Write the structure tokens for this entry.
Amino acid sequence: MQRRQFIASGSVLAAFILAGCEQGLHYSLAEVVRRLLTVSSQRALSRLIAPGGFYDNQVARITLPDELSGKGQAIARILITSLLRDRLQRQVNEAAAVGAERAAPVIADAIISISPQDAAAIVRGNGPLATDLLRQHMGDALFSAMLPGVDEGLRTFDSQVVQDVLKVATGIDFAGLRRDIARKASDAIFAEMGREEVAIRADPRSSRDPVLIEGLGGSGYR
């Protein structure tokens, strides 16, 4: 999926929410929560799937498993050079971006299907409450959805470096590396979404979104 398709999926969700609001001037609390999640996820994923999005982000950067990072066996530290590890880490982060891009529709679908029973507490509370709810709602769905994209990324960008490193390291194989990347990338996506949610709550007008401006501004609930 191309990035424009993810953005389009967010636009579809926005239209879905706004269509439900056209009959009146106010928005339901559940609609505010869904829109907050939509904008937060769009911002977070757009940044992470951009070139260098994971690698250049000190918080979201995907680290190598201990077996490949030089923290493991002495033989690995000797044979896996720093240059090789750097190449591998860059590929790992590129693979995470591919996984995130492929998984974006799963996030959009989860947001549409979510029915927050405690929407009032989420809207009026502080912190990444909506993101936490989405993460609980999705369980391992994001991790599972990312695996095929991570696999594709590992095999596409520089498959030789992956093969070379895995020949040296013990205690991890291709499947283990793929799972490690997908798990860390999934955590990073939710963390970035949470930061975006907190930023939007602090300044709803910066979103330029009428649902969030009215909903998070303390008026317009029903």
Q: What stands out?
A: The chain is about 70% helix and 0% strand.
